[in-house]
């Protein structure tokens, strides 16, 4: 399989909106985020991509321009797989179908969180999902506060206010990106 490795610095853009990627990215060190920026400069964080996770596969396979940016959250190393080489391997195609199915599930979950009307319900949806996903009432999320606000499509100050209320009501506890859910 034809692949190359490239290193990126924190906040460096890996793919720009409107790029037509020729390769699928796999995070080998660090992490990246998929985000979009509207014409007013408002950022919406769509997903966080960590170790051994792929990005840009839908765009690369369909040879269409990206509607999003891919940005390094920290210094990272990315492996790029040439799409033409991928198309020649039936085994890799099967793996790609599984990966795309999992991504579809993840994006559906994101839509479920942000479709809630109140900030509290968005937070409850996300934290409930994380508790279920980790099978633990204490877990780390992959976001800082600004990224969490962007992911849930809310203002950071409003998110912080709601988290403080939920903490004072005894529903949750948190320190930085570690949360404990008491009664959700």
From TrEMBL:
<dbReference type="GO" id="GO:0003677">
    <property type="term" value="F:DNA binding"/>
</dbReference>
<dbReference type="InterPro" id="IPR012318">
    <property type="entry name" value="HTH_CRP"/>
</dbReference>
<feature type="domain" description="Cyclic nucleotide-binding">
    <location>
        <begin position="6"/>
        <end position="88"/>
    </location>
</feature>
<dbReference type="InterPro" id="IPR036390">
    <property type="entry name" value="WH_DNA-bd_sf"/>
</dbReference>
<dbReference type="InterPro" id="IPR018490">
    <property type="entry name" value="cNMP-bd_dom_sf"/>
</dbReference>
<keyword id="KW-0805">Transcription regulation</keyword>
<dbReference type="GO" id="GO:0006355">
    <property type="term" value="P:regulation of DNA-templated transcription"/>
</dbReference>
<protein>
    <submittedName>
        <fullName>Cyclic nucleotide-binding domain protein</fullName>
    </submittedName>
</protein>
<feature type="domain" description="HTH crp-type">
    <location>
        <begin position="117"/>
        <end position="184"/>
    </location>
</feature>
<keyword id="KW-0238">DNA-binding</keyword>
<keyword id="KW-0804">Transcription</keyword>
<dbReference type="Pfam" id="PF00027">
    <property type="entry name" value="cNMP_binding"/>
</dbReference>
<dbReference type="InterPro" id="IPR014710">
    <property type="entry name" value="RmlC-like_jellyroll"/>
</dbReference>
<dbReference type="InterPro" id="IPR000595">
    <property type="entry name" value="cNMP-bd_dom"/>
</dbReference>
<dbReference type="Pfam" id="PF13545">
    <property type="entry name" value="HTH_Crp_2"/>
</dbReference>
